[in-house]
Every structure is written in structure tokens, then in C-alpha cells.
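Schema walk-through. Below, the input block comes first and the output block second. Nothing else is stored per chain. Lengths vary across the set, and this one has 175 residues.
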Amino acid sequence: MRQRRSFGRSFQRAASLATVVAAILLSLGFYALQVAAQEGAEILPVSVFVGLAAVVGSAVNQPFRHEEGNPEQTDTGLYFLWKCSVAIAFALLLYLIFMAGMLRGGLFPEFRRTEEMFVSIQRFVLDIDPKSNADFAKLLVWSFVAGFSEKFVPNIITKLQGSGDRDDSDAGPPS
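--- output ---
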């Protein structure tokens, strides 16, 4: 009886996750068709490659993860799918952090047209791209790292939050 309930919960989680993944894939497919319909536009935005690099990073690190005693890890496929989803989310967040210029330096990618006025999400996705091939390569490397190391992006967020708190205290009280 206990195995039956466990299977039911695992199946329900898998079905829910499969629904979310299917919705995301359908959205990406429709987006790609819309973009492809435009003359001279890229079929796949940079964010798709960011997500793929994160999944590769997560997959490469999978054999090295040891989380013994975790009862939720009974379904390895579902666990791996969850880890890849988290990797994609972190890589996309890191991509936005780079685009916003919150991390700068020779190791980080730079982007074109970041100072232009916001017009639409479509223009945002299509117009802001790495300045050079080297910047695109840096973006893919950092996306891989975001997938490989689950603590990397949360640590960056914590450091950015700390630097933001210091900036707020330096500014003095609001007028």
C-alpha cells in the first residue's frame, strides 16, 4: 500500500513537471516560428543557448552529486529533470545580471544596445546580444558553470544583495 501511494505521488509530480516542460517547449516553438517569420531575424534567441549550456553543465556534474538519504530522490529521471530546470533558471538569471551590467570585468560578457529605451519584450530579447564572439563564448561558459554548480548563482545574488545594502546605507536617508 505504501509503495502504491509513493508511486502515485511520483507519478503526479512527474505529470505536473511534464506539463510545465511541455508548455515551455510549446512557447519556445511558437516564439521561434514568430521570429523566423521576420525577415533577417535569428530563429533561436541567445537565451535558448544559455539554457542549453546550463543543462549540459548540470548533466556533466550529475555523476558527481551525492545526496545520500534523500527520500525525494527515488525517481532519478524526475530528479535530473528538476536539476536541469533549476540550472536553466539560474543561467537565465545570470544572463540578466550580465545584461544589466551588475557584474563587469574582463571575465564577464558585454552586450550591445543595453542603453536603448525598452520598447517590447520581443525587441528586448532580439536586440540585446553579446558584443563579440568572445562575449558570447564567455556567456556560454558562465551558463555552463551556473548549471554545473548549484550554489554559484545563489552566492552571486547574496553578494549583490550585500553590495546593494552597502550602497543604500552610503546614500543616506531619502529626502
